[in-house]
Specification:
Blueprint: E1 6-9, E2 14-17, E3 28-35, E4 38-43, E5 48-52, E6 55-58, E7 68-73, E8 79-83, E9 86-91, E10 94-97, E11 112-118, E12 121-126, E13 136-140, E14 146-150, E15 156-160, E16 165-169, E17 174-178, H1 179-183, E18 206-209, E19 215-218, E20 223-226, E21 232-235, E22 246-251, E23 257-261, E24 266-269, E25 274-276, E26 288-293, E27 300-304, E28 309-314, E29 317-324, E30 331-335, E31 338-342, E32 346-352, E33 359-367, E34 380-382, E35 385-388, E36 392-397, E37 400-406, E38 411-416, E39 421-426, E40 431-436, E41 445-451, E42 460-465, E43 471-475, E44 480-485, E45 490-496, E46 507-512, E47 518-522, E48 526-532, E49 535-540, E50 551-556, E51 562-566, E52 571-574, E53 588-594, E54 597-599, E55 606-608, E56 615-620, E57 631-637, E58 652-655, E59 661-670, E60 678-686, H2 694-763, H3 768-795, H4 802-820, E61 823-827, H5 839-860, E62 864-872, E63 875-882, H6 898-908, E64 912-917, E65 921-928
Parallel strand pairs: 29-33, 55-60, 61-62
Antiparallel strand pairs: 1-2, 3-4, 4-5, 5-6, 7-8, 8-9, 9-10, 11-12, 12-13, 13-14, 15-16, 16-17, 18-19, 19-20, 20-21, 22-23, 23-24, 25-52, 26-27, 27-28, 28-29, 30-31, 31-32, 32-33, 34-35, 35-36, 36-37, 38-39, 39-40, 40-41, 42-43, 43-44, 44-45, 46-47, 47-48, 48-49, 50-51, 51-52, 53-54, 53-56, ...
Helix pairs in contact: 2-3, 4-5, 5-6
Length: about 950
């Protein structure tokens, strides 16, 4: 809520709304959450609005609407509002004013800027900037009467049920009232509880209570946190909170503290269990140089080099011990009752001062050879044995180095697993394992295995072993690795980098707590790697609190309190106080954009046209604890891709050129903290273009069929017309042939007949020569008439049937054979099917048979001739057989052109022509019938 509009942060992006987006006024006074994706919105004007799924909507367009300053939903669910015009309740979309006419100062008590649920009352605070009279009032919800409670100007009113108090504060005024009495309408002042005495030392215009019942108090340039047991912590520039002009704080569902500033933006403290505890132990910001959190107790030891003292921190408080003589300390270790302090080349043993219970005496326990132990401040302890890394691993006990083994390469940190095997991570990238053998001093550390290939060229810097005996290795350049061990090898399991949520890839220190969480100290901050729902997640502990510094050392107490030593002596303490709430992030689609236009999101899904197929879904899973590590994956059912996408922190899904169809978008979100993964689905449809719809396909199919029918109809109509035209032409030709034949018959025939009869008359005359000539004339004329009749017969198309052809052949053959006095026999089928022959076949069959009979009469000396016809499958056979002297096939050319003519005629109609010589001669003609 700003004076320049509404700014919404969903964990993935900021979205800003102003008057151009439908906001009635750029000054936003208050909001009230209605559902996870909608809230009421009060701007500094007489209109009520709502934000619903990414869009500003107007609730009250007509009628009266007060200028709302504060919303309240009470325990019954009724929505009340403190406004410039009094107190109202919201009934549907109508405003019902609570009548306060009985108020003594009704003429001046007009504007209210705060309202709280107060049992049977509403506690309302007068907006002193708008009215002359100030104070708090109780508004009886049942009787709707206004009761003055306390007449003073307060900036903040806070109910603290734990201590049964109502705390009212302003810059110059602090009042505490009995809460139960106040809820009964009685202003009974009480003493401020001892745990909140720090409030008296600060000007506190604003108070807020978080989910752990910590009281947060804001000043201009700092925040004060008071825990339920009275511990205080100041957040300001000295503790890493570099802010100015704080003017508001807000605590959300996840117990995340949001700090509103004027000029420094919005600042988030996501993990309120993280404390910058430097100021609790040392007056100097760089004083603490070493710390050790005892895993066997709840005590943490800290060495202050500036003050030459030791601090102990327990749940009961902090104790200071002086140290003499003056020494330097870069590392602390305690086991049993021995406290070791490490300088560069010296180890001190601190013993209690017998004369002073709050003092230690430092004695030199071990003096290292110069430069032989280069990393003494990474020394570990196990069963009173000190193990110091460096160019060698030295074993120290009772102030003496009892064993040393040369390392293949320099090693920064060492660790001991449950099997009592010592592990080193040399900078050359190998992991080297040694067995520990206290009973064999000469082989105290015996080489076991060198895993050369597991970390090639990654420059290891830190190592830790968790409670499951996994090995965790932090590297210089490539983040964090995890390995499982078996008898002969290491199996690579996990790898984490900044892409997986680490603050930095340079891992300087590692530690494992009692819950098997791995704490990672890097060049830029502290991270936590924990196993949740079967998967490891990374949580940026310091990054979430805007703290970025080198973490040199990490130590964990028995009660799982994590302590870190940062650069310049900065101390961080991470407590293990779980937040009690039932909040669960709601995975949702915050916006749908289609071709750069924003669309509403109805629950039953959206329908788009085929041109609206470039769709963007903006996802959100509003959790503000390391929200950059929330990962999304999706599956678009209905598309070609059948696999879930790889989890990614990218909260925007872009689908380009989606084909039409029905889709179901399934989305998952996983969180870096202990929330269960969320999943949601949203359906949408891209409709096909009109030409790809079922009804369009049916219409187009029908049109295509109709077109094909028209084409076929046109084709066959043209074909019939062509056939008709051809038939008409053939008829015309036949008619012309018939006409010619008739004319030949009528004219030429009559003339030839006349010649014949004249010649016949001439033959009756005397004289042998006249008689001979006349006979020749008669014979030629007769032959001419016969040939003419044959030609005429072959030209007529109505004589084309097979039966007509055989009948004519029979007639011609009988006439010739009878004239020659030769006996003959016909073997023709009785029932001849209706088969039409072509003019050419009909003519050639007739001429072949005529020529064959002519040859028989002239050359064969035959006494009997047989003509037979047979119908075969798809064909016809004509045989002419005589019993004459036969034909010498070798001398067939003597027969003249008759044989050649018959064979040629057979070839013209593609018929088979054969001459057989067996006790006479047989002529065979075989032809196919179409």
């Amino acid at each position: 809520m700003t004076s320049n509009g509404l700014s919404l942060y969903d964990g993935a992006r900021f979205t800003n709304y102003g008057p151009e987006h439908g906001l009635p006024n750029p000054v936003v006074n208050d909001m009230l959450e209605i559902t996870p994706d909608s809230f009421l919105l009060a701007t500094n004007t007489s209109r009520l609005s709502a934000w619903v799924r990414g869009k500003i909507k107007t609730i009250s367009n007509e009628g009266f609407c007060p200028v709302i300053n504060k919303f309240l939903r009470d325990s019954s669910g009724t929505i009340f509002m403190a406004t410039d015009q009094g107190v109202y309740s919201l009934q549907g979309n109508d405003f019902e004013k609570i009548d306060v006419e009985n108020a003594a100062d009704r003429d001046t008590v007009i504007s209210f800027d705060d309202i709280q649920d107060f049992g049977t009352y509403l506690l309302v605070k007068v907006n002193y900037e708008m009215t002359r009279n100030h104070g708090l009032y109780l508004l009886d919800k049942k009787n709707k009467t206004l009761i003055p409670f306390f007449k003073a100007s307060f900036s903040s009113v806070m109910q603290i049920p734990r201590y049964n108090i109502l705390v009212c504060s302003s810059i110059k005024l602090l009042r505490t009232f009995d809460l139960n009495a106040a809820r009964a309408g009685i202003a009974r002042e009480v003493e401020l509880p001892a745990v909140y005495q720090a409030l008296k030392k600060t000007t506190t215009p604003k108070l807020e209570l978080d989910n752990n019942e910590n009281l947060w108090c804001l000043n201009l340039n700092s925040l004060l946190r008071i825990t339920p047991n009275g511990n205080t912590l100041v957040f300001d520039k000295t503790t890493g909170l570099d802010v100015n002009n704080i003017n508001g704080i807000f605590i959300d569902h996840e117990n995340v503290l949001w700090i509103q500033t004027d000029g420094s933006g919005l600042i988030k403290l996501a993990n309120n269990n993280v404390e910058i505890a430097t100021g609790l132990f040392s007056k100097s910001a760089t004083g603490i140089s070493a710390l050790f959190a005892d895993p066997a107790s709840d005590t943490t030891w800290l060495f202050d080099s500036d003050d030459q003292c030791i601090y102990t921190s327990t749940p009961n408080g902090i104790t200071r011990y002086s140290v003499s003589p003056n020494i330097r300390a870069y590392h602390l270790i305690r086991e049993k009752d021995r406290l070791y302090v490490f300088d560069v080349e010296k180890i001190y043993l601190l013993k209690p001062d017998k004369k002073n219970k709050r003092a230690f005496v430092a004695q030199v326990y071990y003096q290292a050879e110069k430069s032989s132990i280069a990393n003494i401040n990474r020394t570990i302890i196990d069963n009173d044995y000190l193990y110091a890394p460096g160019p060698e691993v030295a074993v120290i006990k009772d102030g003496k180095k009892i064993f040393a083994i040369k390392i293949p390469y320099y090693t920064d940190q060492i660790a001991i697993d449950k099997r009592k095997m010592l592990w080193t991570a040399p900078r050359n990238g190998a992991l080297v394992c040694y067995s520990i053998n206290p009973n064999d001093p000469s082989n105290f550390l015996r080489f076991h295995h060198n895993y050369r290939s597991v970390l090639p060229a990654l420059n290891p810097r830190s190592i830790a072993i968790d409670t499951d005996n996994r090995i965790w290795v932090g590297t210089r350049y490539d983040g964090l690795y995890c390995f499982e061990m078996d008898d002969t090898s290491l199996i690579h399991q996990y790898h984490f980098t900044v892409k997986d949520g680490l603050t930095d890839n340079f891992i300087y220190s590692l530690a494992c707590d009692k819950n098997n969480n791995i704490w990672v100290g890097s060049q830029s901050g502290l991270d936590k790697v924990s196993l949740q729902n079967g998967q490891y997640t990374v949580e940026g502990i310091t990054r979430n609190n805007n703290i970025f510094q080198l973490i040199q050392d990490i130590s964990v107490t028995k009660n799982n309190q994590v302590w870190t030593l940062g650069n310049s002596g900065s101390i961080l303490r991470v407590t293990n106080n779980p937040v009690s709430n039932v909040y669960s992030p709601q995975l949702q689609i915050s916006k749908i954009k289609v071709n750069d236009s924003v669309y509403d999101m109805p629950a039953d899904g959206l329908r788009f046209t085929h041109l609206q197929n470039n769709i963007t879904f903006e996802l959100a899973a509003p959790s503000f604890i390391d929200e950059q590590q929330i990962k999304f994956s999706y599956l678009l059912e209905g598309s070609d891709n059948k696999q879930w996408s790889a989890p990614s922190p990218q909260p925007t899904l872009n689908f380009i050129n989606l084909p039409h169809g029905t889709y179901k978008l399934r989305v998952k979100a996983s969180f870096p903290v202990s929330y269960s993964p969320q999943e949601m689905t949203y359906s949408f449809i891209i409709t096909p273009p009109w030409w790809d719809t079922w009804w369009a396909k049916i219409l187009m199919g029908a049109a295509l069929i109709a077109f094909i029918v028209l084409i076929l109809r046109f084709y066959y109509q043209r074909k019939l017309e062509k056939q008709k035209t051809l038939f008409e032409k053939q008829q015309a030709v036949e008619q012309e042939r018939t006409r010619i034949a008739m004319e030949m018959h009528d004219d030429l025939g009559s003339g030839l007949t006349t010649i014949r009869y004249l010649a016949g008359g001439l033959s009756l005359q005397t004289g042998d020569s006249s008689k001979e000539k006349a006979e020749k004339i008669v014979t030629s004329a007769k032959s001419l008439v016969d040939n003419m009749n044959d030609i005429i017969w072959t030209m007529k198309s109505d004589n084309n049937s097979l039966s007509e052809t055989l009948a004519y052949i029979r007639k011609q053959a009988a006439e010739q054979l009878e004239t020659a006095g030769i006996d003959y026999h016909f073997d023709f089928p009785k029932d001849i099917p209706a088969i039409n022959l072509s003019n050419e076949l009909k003519r050639n069959l007739l001429l072949i048979s005529k020529e064959a009979i002519h040859n028989i009469v002239k050359h064969s000396a035959a006494t009997k001739v047989t003509l037979s016809a047979e119908l075969e499958t798809g064909g016809f056979q004509l045989r002419i057989t005589d019993d004459g002297k036969g034909i010498d096939l070798a001398e067939i050319s003597h027969f003249g052109n008759g044989m050649k003519s018959m064979r040629k005629r057979a070839e013209e109609v593609q018929a088979l022509f054969e001459v057989l010589n067996n006790k006479g001669t047989t002529i065979v003609v075989k032809s196919r019938l179409k």
